Task: inverse folding
């Protein structure tokens, strides 16, 4: 009888901490959330500047990045809750009727049409080979000297030192992408730990109600 397979075996994420996604192979990922721009509404000169800036970014990067477009059905629960608060506070009978009709219209519209929201992400990776990892560990150990123990704690200490080294290198890559995209005029932020947890929850649970992340800018669709 075949053994049951856990779905966790098919998920490459080991854990999420310190604004980084740690994969099971030891590599790290940073996720940047990027806004959209109204490219067609810009003048020809502005369009050329945007394309040149983007081209310059791609030419300067010596590592790969992944561009992700996440489409998801709009969750209007929080918006309907605000309408309910407005309805409860309204004293004018005619306005209360209009508010209720508007709320019902929104519910009907979302139920019969696929109102989708789009968000844009850039995934920045970092992974090192064995030799490079040893050199990086040596450098980070010089910057952050830690007592050497011959117990099992030394293995954990090495893992933490290795993680700090990778995190530092990943930060350099993130800064390179940030500086390269700024001339294009887009808004861009790096997702923090809680925002990463909510993003991956939504990605792996598409059938459930989307978890509401903390306040971030709303990218153009």
Result:
């Amino acid at each position: 009888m075949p053994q049951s397979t856990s779905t966790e075996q098919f998920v490459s994420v080991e854990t999420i901490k310190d604004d980084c996604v740690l994969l099971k192979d030891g590599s790290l990922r940073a996720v940047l959330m990027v806004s959209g721009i109204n490219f067609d509404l810009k003048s020809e000169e502005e369009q050329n500047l945007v394309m040149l800036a983007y081209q310059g970014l791609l030419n300067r990067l010596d590592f790969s990045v992944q561009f992700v477009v996440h489409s998801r059905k709009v969750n209007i629960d929080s918006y309907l809750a605000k309408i309910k608060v407005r309805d409860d506070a309204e004293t004018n009978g005619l306005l209360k009727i209009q508010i209720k009709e508007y709320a019902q219209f929104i519910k009907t519209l979302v139920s019969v049409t696929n109102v989708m929201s789009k968000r844009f992400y850039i995934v920045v990776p970092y992974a090192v080979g064995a030799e490079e990892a040893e050199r990086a560990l040596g450098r980070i150990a010089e910057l952050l000297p830690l007592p050497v123990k011959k117990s099992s704690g030394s293995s954990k200490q090495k893992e933490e030192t290795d993680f700090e080294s990778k995190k530092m290198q990943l930060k350099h890559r993130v800064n390179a992408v940030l500086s390269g995209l700024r001339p294009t005029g887009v808004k861009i932020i790096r997702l923090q730990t809680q925002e990463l947890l909510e993003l991956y929850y939504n990605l792996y649970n598409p059938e459930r109600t989307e978890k509401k992340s903390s306040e971030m800018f709303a990218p153009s669709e």
